[in-house]
Amino acid sequence: MIKEKTNSTLTFADFKIEVLKDYTTAIISRECSLLGRKEVLTGKAKFGIFGDGKEVPQLAMAKAFKNGDFRSGYYRDQTFMMAIGQLTVQQFFAGLYGHTDIEQEPMSAGRQMGGHFATHSLNEDGSWKDLTKQKNSSSDISPTAGQMPRLLGIAQASKIYRQVKGMPNAANFSNEGNEVAWGTIGNASTSEGLFFETINAAGVLQVPMVMSVWDDEYGISVHARHQTTKENISEILKGYQKEEDTNGFEILRVKGWDYAELVATYEKAAIIARENHVPVLIHVNELTQPQGHSSSGSHERYKDANRLAWERDFDCIRQMKLWMIAINIASPEEIDAIDAAAKKEVLEGKKAAWNAFLQPIIEEQKELVTLLEKIATTSKKQEEVLKYASELSAIKSPIKKEILVTARKVLRLIITENQREELSQWITRYTAKTQKNFSSNLYSETDLNVFSVDKVLPTYADDAAEDTDGRMILRDNFDAIFTKYPETLIFGEDAGTIGDVNQGLEGMQEKYGELRVADVGIREATILGQGIGMALRGLRPIAEIQYLDYLLYAIQIMSDDLATLRYRTVGKQKAPLIIRTRGHRLEGIWHSGSPMGMIINAIRGIHVLVPRNMTQAAGFYNSLLECDEPALVIECLNGYRLKEKMPTNYGEFKTPIGVVETMKEGSDITLVSYGSTLRLVQQAAKELLEVGIDCEVIDLQSLLPFDIKHDLVKSIMKTNRLLVIDEDVPGGASAYILQQIIEQQNGYNYLDSKPQTLTAKEHRPAYGTDGDYFSKPSTEDIYEKVYEMMNEVNPSKYPTMF
Fold first, then answer.
1. Catalytic annotation present for 299
2. Active-site hit among 591, 607, 710, 763
3. What Å distances lie between residue 786 and 17, 349, 793, CA to CA?
4. Does the reported pTM lie above 0.90?
5. Kind of enzyme, top EC level (predicted)?
6. pLDDT tens, 566-590?
7. What is the 3-state secondary structure (H, E, C) of 158-196?
8. What is the Cα–Cα distance from 619 to 15, expressed in whole angstroms?
9. Omega before 106 cis (within 30°)?
């Protein structure tokens, strides 16, 4: 067992002050939960999920939480956030109402439902704050156990900062690795695979994580006997208990209503994790949930009378009161006075939050009513317009939707009248002003976004040697990256000792050490989580997923956490993680998939880059390391042994992001593709030229962002025909590409024939060379498809083949 230190003993007077302060925070939090539920039931708020019943253990956690520490928790930690000074009563209710002002609702400006917490890691310009000078919380997400993978990376960052020297600005992110990552989760959510994957990984990595399980025996209405073997998560995790000369966890158990024991337990856990970098699991049991799971239902429906009576008796706040009285911390009368003051404070905070939320909307309501009344004075539809104005004016608690709906309906009425222009302009201004409150910051809006990086071409020696394997270009570029950016590190399955399965990292672990070039277990979700957490703390991780098909294990984390991070914090947190994988054509169902349509539609908020060769891929890595945005780079599986010219400016050349490249100019038809299939397109174009068909071949290079210069439509203006070739399934990425060209770029204006796609079959590719040929587009398929399209133009010159 690990030996732990204890803090110096407080005087009783100091102890009393501290306990009373804690109790006050707990009772304020409880009153917020009680009043918050009422606000939902009266309709002022849409939904509520609260931390009642968990107040006392969260106080204990807050006492052990230091500046520089990070929380990765779930949606019941309001008491903790109040205790560390990061959540006020007014902010709590602002979150409940969905206030879109980040100053009023600093957690997410109304983008997430209440109970989802975050602190601000970034300054207004997107630069990092000094995270060691504040208490930090990564932004919560709703999917159960979704906070676990990120927690692993947050904890691992401390290990990296402690053991890897020479990183720039490290002092702004870590005090020599002494920070603890604090995780919280409900007992039922420990049934999720992400929980077990993270627990196992943390035990292997030995990172400073303290994982709290709030155990109230239920998951909504489902009892623990249906959730957990032996109904006890710490019991079944005993095999993870750290023993002498082994890795693993320290496992602690404590009753959630025992304030004194909770404080001691959390102090002990903090010392173990902070000083020794050993993870700790704290199983906090005998907790209650006084109002049930959420405002959507009542727990009386699924708890019997005995359980409800026990919950009343062992409510953590009631037990804390009894303990305070028993040891003369406070008399019943003093406690009653604190309770009364808390009720008043919460009520006043609620009123202030509601007024701050409502007043700006009322001003907008008045503005539109005044405009409508003015319009009515000269309108042929005076009566109808005044009716709309009156109905809007009568709404005592309007929302923005009601204002805009009224304006748009009136515009329909007066569409043929002169006044329509003024109302139309008002609607345009109002929509533009309001929409950004709901749609900004999906991608970086700082000077460090991907569009801030200028293209730098690879340079080549005049007496360049023969072309080399593509993998060598990747390897030498990674070598330059690791030298240029000491804060970069890469990790994945087989990434370390053997230098990845295609030797793109050959020799890198030996040169830069096992922490910067690391092997990890087969656990894709937590590989992503490691990257997210470390990127949240100022490192520049590259998380490697061995094959594109395996990305499906991690797609939920990418979609729900990484892709939404900047959006759900309104630009107050960022995680510029680079995800490296390889895919497209190879052999077999699970090694040659190209599920690009699914990926690009699941991870908006992450850039998706699809280089055709390794020089392009290396240039993307160089570009991304000058940006502050996350991205997925998909290398071509069949390109590592293909020959490419060797550059001389490794680490410096940069592939532009969001810009297409014309590989061959032509006049008859535009062929659009990316990745491995592009080589087949180029071959087909060469063969088609022999029969007089001149194809323009364009490499997309990136799918997100997509052709920001609109070069594709410029090509169609010249050729008047379009074929998209894609190895995804029909209607996959090709549908997205067509939508971008035809709808967004107005390409339909310049087409003389139907735009078409050539894709893989609906099934996954079968094994072997024949499986590839009969499952995905071939050179012959491309040739014949283009020939068929040209048959429409000139049947006599291009007679029907089949």
1. no
2. 591
3. 81, 68, 11
4. yes
5. oxidoreductase
6. 999 999 999 999 999 999 877 788 8
7. HHHHHHCCCCCCHHHCCCCCCCCEEEEEECHHHHCHHHH
8. 59
9. no
